[in-house]
Amino acid sequence: MLSFLLALTLTAALGEVINVPVNDHPTQKLGFEVDYGNNQFLLDGKPFRYVSGSFHYFRAPKQYWRSNLRKMRAAGLNAVSTYVEWSLHEPEENQWEWSGDADLVEFLNIAEEEGLLVLLRPGPYICAERDFGGLPYWLLTRVPDIRLRTNDPRYMRYVEIYLNEVFNRVEPLLRGNGGPIIMVQVENEYGSYACDHDYLNRLRDIMREKIGSKALLYSTDGNNDNMLRCGHIDGVYTTVDFGTTVDVTRSFEIMRKYQPRGPLVNSEFYPGWLTHWGENFRRVDSNAVVKTLDEMLSMGASVNMYMFYGGTNFGYTAGANGGKNSYMPQITSYDYDAPLTEAGDPTPKYFKIRNVISKYLPLPNMSLPNASVKADYGPVRLSPVVNLFEPLGRELFATVVLESSEPLTFEALGLSHWLTLYETDLINSTSDPAILHADVRDRGSVYVDDNLIGTLSRTDSFYNIAIANPYARKLKLLIENQGRLNYGSGLRDFKGVWNVTLNNVRLSHWKMTGYRLDDLSVIRSRPTIALETGELRRGPVILRGRFTITGKPLDTYLNTDDWGKGVAFVNGRNLGRYWPIVGPQATLYVPAPFLRTGENELMLVELEYVPNSRTMKFQPTPLLNHHL
């Protein structure tokens, strides 16, 4: 670990030199605290104000952490904010991951080396537009009626284990120990969820036991009196969050009601916004961003921009918003219209923000970043290898097969994500057509006697489908988990299918096959199979293609246009979900570290449609607002 107390000169890959501040008083006490008398922060005893940006380490390959952090410092930021994602670090109970792209300590060390202080947001709930708000799915399997984000001892038992694991690793990096972590958030926007102060106080006490006075505990809530009342925690510094469309003075007045003294803080200022499937790609006007930022900084406020670099929801990690009667899954890209694009390229917004920051903080002596060169690797022809419903598909990818009188949830089957097949026999019906009803979470492809007849959708509140005469005997429901809710009261978002009836008569005696599609390498040497292009009426298909890269790999984008719905893998790395017919995203970002010189492999799990060309192409530009 490199300390801010050391005089360092770091040569950057961008060609600049970073000068990390020198401590002229080696015996000076280290720490970060609030000077309530003068409404300011004190860093190592000196007045301090931070201008920070959010960058979640889990949304970028580890190889790009340093370059993105360096670009943030070049913009004039002096701090970075990051969530810690519980589900990443404990994907299954007592199975911990802290290496590779999950190496939190390495990320924090790099931030320090690049001259950035750290605002750490360990949750346990983080929202962040991630599946289940960053909570591990297995919490729902241990205690089905668990009361999440409450003082329920069954929940708190796991929370305390998780937080201890985090703080045992980051404790040396707290500011009081010479490290970069100046602030640690208690929970996350809790006032938007509930008003359980016993829960918040318990979290505060767990964190304080580990942190002491070596970093400042803080809370974050929206600029709403009720949110701040419910999210405020005694002994924890209260901050507020808001974007460009509100009255800045009024928003800080609401903060002052619960934090009468100390510096003004906007912990989430939004220079961009999130996007759901089926929406236009969301943008926030640059002029509105810089106007509001300038106003806050002129008031002496500290500000964290959410997001400064957004990145990507690789794999099955994207979450969803919604409630009792709505469901809106988020796209794979988390570009967020942030100052740095999904690929880490600076935008015009980046330079406008830098100009505003320069009025209030000294800019580092660094050359400015440029957009990286992207590659056009051209088309790749894909060949079908296995149908998931066929015996080979089940043999290779079915991780659980159970039978039950009622359909079980993904969680009860021990399946964290994506696909489960539910099969049963249809009963005789006296009407024509017969009406099949099924409450799906989240999307269900309906097959009758191995033939696709339609789709049920939680997003569209479409739960009924007609089965015409002559009546068939076999029913298959392929249920897709499109992402657990990450925000709101419906957080206990079990996946699967419920209340399956034919003409109001409940269907029973189910066979359930859970597919775990994290590793497709078992089909690498399998021969191809015959497949008619167009709509996949007999089940999902895995396809494989190869392409060659000469020279050093570069970032690129996989264009999924004309295909149906699925996920794509490059050299074993899951790029995330694609759904171009719904949009707005039509390309998947492919970082250069996922590629290699020589032969590369592209694999798809396609659920719905294969075009006649059977090709996808790698291109140098993204399509994030396609067809809409």
- The number of distinct β-strands equals 36
Q: Mean of residue pLDDT? A: 94
The helix content, as a percent range, equals 10-25%
Low-confidence stretches: 1-25
Q: Give me the number of helical elements.
A: 11
> What characterizes the major β-sheet?
8 strands, parallel, barrel
Compute the gyration radius: what is it? Answer: 25 Å
Strand order of the largest sheet: 6-7-8-9-10-11-12-13
Shape descriptor reads globular
The fraction of residues assigned to DSSP E strands is 25-35%
Structural class category? alpha+beta
End-to-end Cα distance: 47 Å
Chain-wise SSE layout:
Layout: E1 8-11, E2 17-20, E3 32-35, E4 40-43, E5 46-48, E6 51-54, H1 65-74, E7 79-83, H2 86-89, H3 104-113, E8 117-121, H4 139-142, H5 153-170, E9 181-185, H6 197-211, E10 216-222, H7 225-231, E11 237-242, H8 248-258, E12 265-269, H9 286-298, E13 302-305, E14 320-323, E15 326-329, H10 348-357, E16 378-381, E17 383-387, H11 391-397, E18 398-404, E19 419-425, E20 434-441, E21 443-448, E22 451-457, E23 464-467, E24 474-480, E25 496-502, E26 505-506, E27 510-515, E28 534-535, E29 541-549, E30 556-559, E31 566-570, E32 573-578, E33 587-590, E34 598-606, E35 609-610, E36 615-619
